[in-house]
Amino acid sequence: MYRFHPSVQFDSAYPTQQQIKEQIVNVWKRYDLERRTTFETKVTSVKKTKNGQWIINNDEEQYGRFDGILATVGVCGDPKMPPLPNQEKFKGQIYHSSELDGKDAKGKKVLIVGGGASAIEALEFAVKNEAAEIDVLSRSDKWIIPRNILVQSLLACNIFGQETSFSWIPEWLLRKFFYRDLEDIAPTDKGIFTGTPMANDELFNQIREGKAHWLRGDIVSVEENGVMFNYRSKGVPKGGPGRERLVEGDIIVMATGFKRPSLTFLPDECFDEPYGPPSWYLQVFPPKYPDICANNSTYVDAIGTVGNMHIGIYTRFLLMFLTDPLTRPTEGWMKTWIDFTRFMKRLAPTGAFDFFTYAELIYWYFFVLVVNPFRWKWALFVFFGIGRGMPLRFVEQENSFRRELKKQRKSKKAH
């Protein structure tokens, strides 16, 4: 389960909304964030003043000034609920996958629309609630990997962050030893290093035990007692020919994901092409503004041992840039790094920043630390959050030296 802070612990792979809220509140209280939090405040703009500080919503008097911006809107906003053809005919209930807490599915036929992580979560809900029958209606096949730290780590070790001539090896191993008799639902049109795979150990067992069915095809229309579904054979593209059949159901769960929250409150220059998100420095710093960090808000797809480590590292990069001017990258250097990364991944089937692995991400961190000697003293702090005292003392000495140099220059001009 994704953990946004080292202290966060969950008892299950898919915690309830209430459990997630409790963990958020615990962290909020532990770090005394109440006095630093302003609720019910929609941020519509952030503007930089002449002295380099930031003003929120053009209201300095109410909110004050800030040295940096952490844009942490994330990637999941409001539920995405696309209408289904003739859904008003359906006599059962239609829910979004985010609305399942407290719903009753015992003895009912559940239809799950979608094939991503939300569909897996909805399937586990239906199994736990003893649904009579579960059908997942997916438009395409998705890569599914074991929820195993070793397997995920090995896949994340692809430092190139893209499909390579050796990618067939992990794909073959997954088909033969994980999918096994269910190899038919493994993707054939896309490699594993092109999108975020789903990590789940129980799905295939539930299918083998007859508790669930994974159906590939397209929804034709919604009927009173189910969904008219066009079954497609393996390899047939979306919307292609197939065989239509009614899939009966009492509940339709829309596992259709969430809308991406907007970053439009950031300055317009952040979106200048060809350096718009996610094509930013380290994917989160706009080239014109090293004092803005869109932490976990520009992510598209990746493979990694999902956790909180990168959130802390990105935050500490921002703190380093704000505290130590000599570590701050110039706009030209940030764009050069972006162009270099694009060149290195020019053969990737996805955009250079649309997919990455954790090994590639760690390589990015090491690379940008090593190329600037003034950042070396910050390495322990950036990676592990320790040892900030030493670099701060260096910065103070550097500041004193700069102030003294400034005085000497002024003195020479006066004479």
TrEMBL record:
Keyword Zinc: no
InterPro entries, sorted: FAD/NAD-bd_sf (IPR036188), Flavin_mOase-like (IPR020946), FMO-like (IPR050346)
Annotated signal sequence range: none
Name of a matching Pfam family: FMO-like
GO MF assignments: flavin adenine dinucleotide binding; N,N-dimethylaniline monooxygenase activity; NADP binding
Tree of life domain: Eukaryota
Gene3D superfamilies given in the database record: FAD/NAD(P)-binding domain
Keyword list, A-Z: FAD, Flavoprotein, Membrane, Oxidoreductase, Transmembrane, Transmembrane helix
Membrane spanning stretches: 352-372
Family in the record: Belongs to the FMO family.
Protein name: Uncharacterized protein
